Amino acid sequence: MTTSQTAPAAVKILVAGGFGVGKTTLVGAVSEVAPLRTEEYLTKASVGVDDLAGIGQKDTTTVALDFGRITVSPELVVYLFGTPGQERFWFMWNDLVNGALGGVVIADTRRLDTSFASIDFFESRDIPFVVAINCFHGHNTRTAEEIRAALDLDPHVPLLIGDVRLRPFGRDVLLALVDHLMSLPAAVG
């Protein structure tokens, strides 16, 4: 007697945001496997190209993507694709987004403007997303209402505030995305 084993259903989630906001960190915090990272060291050649203001001691950057996996059950696997944050790599987002069910925009309150492009990207493609405010070392000087207004977020877009280094916060972000996706009207087609 042979049994046929079917492959689990795959769900793709895109993790986006500005340069140095914590995308690689979030993927690494929640992935069940060692994430695939395409990081390279920042060099003198990036001076004047990459804005390091407000980033501190960052010495590497994602140049293609980050990839992680979460097995929810034998029938369901979630694949996380982290985007590169610098504008010179944004062309890759169009390929990375193919097949994505939803997205996570990571933002840093010290540099909220670096998140505008990610929010516009998802909104222009009608891809549901949540916003995760990464509080570096617990530092956040703005309320959720102030952040929502500064980002011009629609009221239905979930906004979470926490530390992306912490696995429970990463889990909460992904669960908020699932809840958000389930609350949307089913597509007719």
UniProtKB/TrEMBL annotation:
CDD domains, sorted: Ras_like_GTPase
Gene Ontology molecular function: any one: hydrolase activity
Keywords, sorted A to Z: ATP-binding, GTP-binding, Hydrolase, Nucleotide-binding
One protein family per Pfam: ATP_bind_1
Gene3D superfamilies assigned: P-loop containing nucleotide triphosphate hydrolases
InterPro entries attached to this UniProt entry: Gliding_Motility_GTPase (IPR052705), Gpn (IPR004130), P-loop_NTPase (IPR027417)
Taxonomy, superkingdom: Bacteria
Keyword Acyltransferase included in the entry's annotation: no
Family: Belongs to the GPN-loop GTPase family.
Protein name: ATP-binding protein
Lineage: Bacteria, Bacillati, Actinomycetota, Actinomycetes, Kitasatosporales
